[in-house]
Predict the structure.
Amino acid sequence: MKSLLQSTRRPDITFHSSGRIDITARLVRMLGIGRGDVIDVKTDGMEYMLYVRHRASDISGAYEAQCYPTNNGRTHNFRCHSRRLCRALINAVRPSASELRLPAGDPVETAGISQTAVPLITRNPL
């Protein structure tokens, strides 16, 4: 017999080559992302850490990778757009792909980032 589901793990974040970034509710809760927050990814060459770069209350105007809910009141998934961020991650992890679906680890406090960050598991993209 052959399993029809190769992998049952669902991605926490998806980067599309068009610049669209889809963030699941699990990741939104871990980082405390709210409407208008700006996300970013930092790397030390080995690990990629997702974090909230700016909170909506601290900024004014439009920013790249500014998050908004995908559906008002019905879901806790968020979406943002950043073509530069998507291209950088796709080229670093799987250059031939048009989208990159990644699971995330547990939230951590790191020395380079003064707030909570979540490691993206790039070794086994889904």
Q: What stands out?
A: Helices lie at 25-31, 83-93. The mean pLDDT is 91.
